[in-house]
Specification:
The complex is a heterodimer. Helix content of chain A is 86%, strand content 0%. By secondary structure, chain A is an all-alpha fold. Chain A has one domain. Chain A is elongated, with a radius of gyration of 21 Å. Chain B has a 6-stranded mixed β-sheet, with helices on both faces. A 4-stranded antiparallel β-sheet of chain B has the order 2-1-4-5, with helices on one face. Chain B starts with a strand and ends with a helix. The chains are: A mainly alpha, B alpha/beta. At the A-B interface, helix 5 of A face helix 2, strand 6 and helix 3 of B. The complex binds adenosine-5'-diphosphate and magnesium ion (MG). Magnesium ion binds next to helix 1 of chain B.
Chain lengths: 256, 255
């Protein structure tokens, strides 16, 4: 029983690592990256991706900021530490919550969309058609999406930082009875620039993960319509796992 | 000229093609027939370098391509066009954009010139003025024709067709057959056509090759093919093992 279960976990881990390896292989041929990417495509992808995800990112982070503040201020006020609440919320937002949650939400929306789009191109032989027409699918499909994700995710995280902190501010002042001045002052005292920029660095990495995993899963979608569905689910699961794992190591590196 | 030398292909240990030797002359129309799953598509995919052979050589105009890098292959692919079995049109682009795609990517032609070429190619396939329609609004036969227009937009010297008449009604099939013939006549291209339809094969082919069990079991002109003594070839042409069998059976039941 237990052995079988461990074996299952082990197999999952091996599959995940194998996927990582293949994704790195996706990047091994430098040729497609040398050519100047089509800026039109990049901009198109950025608009598509940003506009698509902004509302759901804002909603997710707003409520996360609010519920965090409910819990934290409740506990902190008990110990007379209400003057720390603002800072704690802002730091948690900037360093962890905004980048990770934005990454997860975007993985669910954009990562899935990328895999579905490229996967259906794969199973209808459109990828082969590109190659026969002497176009590298990596240069034409992957590079613009990679650039777009790496640029848009930090932008989304900036919005998320702001809206999350605003959510915290509203709950702190209107519900928990912490003064507006106390909240803002505590943000000023506690936070440093790195709390935000570190989160943005993470966002760039998460953007790359989402785009690469999304494209990889799409380009390798098994034949048939159910193949695309499977690839899409697989893409979201793999991106989210990779985001959480890499987030841990990024935190170790960025916030020593 | 296309020359295949001792070409073998297997997918994860499953042998699909075995020791294929075939020479296709410049300007010739070679038709490949064979039951489904016999490796006809694989043969076309090998010729354009979409898959690499397990062993053997593929020569295109005097250049061996089986070991080339993707970037080098792309140079050769510029001289080739392919019509895929399910057309493989880019469904996010209009008909006009599909046909213009290769020109936009590989030439420095102005938009006006491109529009002219697109219009001319669409006229060739009988779809004049259909530039702004999206692929999902087209019937299967129209998709095939757009796919052909896209394949010949860049004036290739070699055109590969993967079952261009599969799933089409007889009238549309005849139209596509005539298009293949006229494309060859007008542009002087070398054509490799994979098909299931013997009537198509007989009407367009210079020579026919039959693949069975991963090997070429018969190769020859249309007439040679009709007279083939090979029972498998006869079965494929007539749908039965011996040409007389169907008729004999019919008379028996009538008695
Ligand atoms: N990418 C692939 N991976 C594994 N097997 C494949 C692949 N493509 C084709 N095959 C197998 O190779 C055989 C020949 O396929 P194909 O060339 O498509 O035949 P045909 O076009 O004559 O119907 C089939 O049995 C098919 O299952
Ligand atoms: Mg086939």
């Amino acid at each position: 029983m237990l052995v079988a279960y461990l074996e299952k976990i082990g197999r999952g881990m091996i599959a995940l690592l194998e996927n990582c390896g293949r994704i790195v292989l996706l990047l091994s041929d430098p040729e497609p990256f040398k050519r100047r990417p089509n800026m039109n495509h990049v901009l198109h992808q950025m608009a598509h991706l940003g506009v698509d995800s902004l509302p759901i990112v804002l909603l997710t982070i707003l409520f996360t900021g609010m519920v965090m503040t409910v819990q934290i201020s409740h506990e902190f006020i008990k110990y007379g530490a209400q003057s720390s609440v603002g800072g704690v919320i802002a730091i948690a937002m900037g360093r962890e919550l905004a980048p990770v949650l934005t990454g997860v939400v975007v993985a669910g929306r954009v990562g899935a969309a990328i895999t579905a789009e490229i996967g259906s191109m794969k199973v209808t032989e459109q990828i082969d058609a590109l190659r026969v027409m002497a176009i590298s699918p990596i240069a034409y499909l992957v590079v613009p999406r990679l650039i777009a994700c790496m640029m848009m995710l930090p932008l989304l995280v900036v919005f998320a930082d702001v809206i999350g902190t605003i959510g915290g501010y509203l709950v702190a002042t209107l519900y928990s009875g912490i003064g507006s001045f106390t909240f803002l002052q505590s943000i000023k005292v506690f936070t440093v620039v790195n709390d935000v920029t570190g989160g943005l660095v993470k966002a760039v990495v998460f953007g790359a993960i989402i785009a690469l995993v999304g494209c990889y899963k799409g380009l390798n979608a098994p034949a048939g319509a159910e193949g695309v569905g499977k690839a899409t689910t697989g893409s979201v699961v793999a991106s989210i796992i990779l985001i959480f794992v890499s987030n841990y190591f990024l935190s170790l590196m960025l916030y020593r | 000229m296309i020359k295949l030398v001792n070409l073998s292909m297997n997918y994860q240990g499953k042998q699909v093609l075995e020791n294929i030797n075939l020479e296709i002359a410049t300007g010739e129309t070679m038709v490949i027939i064979g039951p489904s799953g016999s490796g006809k598509s694989t043969l076309l995919r090998l010729i354009v370098g979409l898959v690499r052979p397990t062993s053997g050589e593929i020569w295109i105009d005097g250049q061996e391509i089986s070991q080339l890098k993707e970037a080098e292959l792309n140079q050769i692919r510029l001289r080739m066009g392919m019509v895929f079995q399910y057309s493989a049109l880019f469904d996010s682009m209009s008909v006009g954009e599909n046909v213009a795609f290769g020109l936009r990517q590989h030439t420095s032609m102005s938009e006006a010139e491109i529009a002219k070429v697109v219009s001319r190619k669409l006229r060739m396939v009988g779809l004049f003025g259909k530039e702004n329609i999206m692929p999902n609004e087209l019937s299967g036969g129209m998709k095939k024709r757009v796919s052909l227009a896209r394949a010949i937009a860049v004036n290739p010297q070699i055109v590969l067709y993967d079952e261009p008449t599969a799933g089409l009604d007889p009238i549309m099939s005849g139209k596509i057959d005539r298009l293949i013939t006229s494309t060859r006549r007008i542009m002087g291209v070398t054509s490799v056509v994979v098909t299931h339809h013997m009537s198509s094969a007989f009407s367009i082919a210079d020579r026919i090759a039959m693949i069975y069990g991963g090997r070429i079991i018969e190769l020859g002109t249309v007439d040679e093919f009709r007279q083939s003594q090979d029972p498998i070839v006869q079965q494929f042409i007539h749908g039965t093992k011996t040409p007389g069998l169907l008729a004999r059976r019919r008379t028996k039941t009538e008695c």
